[in-house]
Amino acid sequence: MEKQKVHQLVLEHIQNHIDQLSNMLNQIQESSQEDSKSSAGDKHETARAMVQIEIENINKQLAVFIDQRQAVLAINPSIQSTKITKGSLVQTNLAWYYFAVGLGKLMVDKELVFVLNPQAPLGQILLGKKAGDCINFKEQDIEILSIQ
Question: Is the pLDDT of residue 40 over 90?
Fold first, then answer.
């Protein structure tokens, strides 16, 4: 597993979400403008309020993904460390973990990688550990096999 590839796929995954949300926002705004030309009355006001709520929700999601993109862009994937830090790609006896932002599961070369926020409970336990260290998390023994 190559850290640069994982890093790039994480960025692409985030960018795909940003693009999808931006497209949704544009479609809603275009549709809303067309509706406002042909509608009047209480139904129209209710529909406008619902559209506004949907726009606000999409904007919130968009802001989260933009913040995540900035956090991942701040990581230099070529930096190697002997201890787990933000930006580490970690192989354990159970799974691969990439310490960046909380994205969840990502398939990389037919292998599952958990993209983990270092502030998540498991992230906090693993931070600072070295290859060969063992921890117990949720009654599972996790051995750190390698760190990139």
Answer: no
What is the rounded CA–CA span in Å between residue 106 and residue 96? 10
* Mean pLDDT over each residue of the chain, to the nearest integer: 92
pLDDT tens column, 66-86: 999 999 999 999 999 999 999
What's the pTM? Answer: 0.86
* Beta strand 140-147 pairing with 134-137: antiparallel
Burial environment of residue 147 by CB neighbours within 10 A (0 to 12, 13 to 18, 19 or more): buried
Sign of CA dihedral 91, 94, 100, 103: positive
Would you state the structure tokens that stand for residue 113, as one six-digit string?
């990688």
Count of CB atoms within 10 A of residue 8's CB?
Answer: 14
Distance of alpha carbon 67 from alpha carbon 147, whole angstroms: 26
Which of 110, 88, 106 shows the shortest CA–CA distance to 98?
A: 88
CA distance 13 to 15: 5
